[in-house]
Specification:
The protein contains 7 helices and 8 strands; from the N terminus they run αβββαβαβαββαβαα. By secondary structure, it is α+β, with helices and mostly antiparallel strands. Strands 1, 2, 3, 4, 5, 6, 7 and 8 form an 8-stranded mixed sheet that branches. Helix 2 runs parallel beside helix 6. The longest helix has 29 residues.
Length: about 240
Amino acid sequence: MNIKKAGMYAILGILFFLPVTFLLFLYPATHNYTPLDIVNENVLDLNGFSSDSEDKVVLKDYITVLGFLGDNPMERLTAASNLKELVYDKFKGFKKFQVVLIAPQGKQNETEQLRKEISLYEDLRFLHVSYGTPQQIKNVFNSLKHQEALDEDYATDALFIIDKDLNQRGRIDDRTDNEIEKNTEIYGLNAYDCIEVATIKNKMSEDLRILFTEYRQKRKGEFNSDTRRASDLKEAIN
């Protein structure tokens, strides 16, 4: 009987200490991660925009995923569904996180229909739609660093990560390990294609996780790494 009890306690001890040991191995990595790069600064805030929220929607002091719906929001249903399922649902519980989608004034009915299509009666209180004039929309988009131009209907499949200080975040060097070994020319990642599930699920989700880790460490006074900026790219190449 004593042998059986001893064996049972030994198994329970292993089951208890194994996860703790695993976390201890991970602990140093959480303090030596590479912060998410600043690829662009001084993103325009949404001054002069209206919104579907009772409170004024702004980018400052929030971690924002920013998108552009354009004149035909329902044509962005696939993109919006990917955004909701792969990003919004995953991060909606994080403090100061929001998704902001921009549409032209007068598209309130269409955007409301889009929200109903993707919500399935779920909580979308951290997903806002802001409405502006064509010029206001272009001004915000032009303050971003991007690979592709805004469509004629003021839409794009690109999503952007904006931090609390109105910096655009991304990757200065988005090369794979294999490309780095081959000394492939450096290329960055400034925006995330919301049609590409792998890009949103893997790259964007990982980058947001890193950004939240940065702010959590800043609150605790543990953040002591300088975030790379786009200007560093020139130095890296030379």
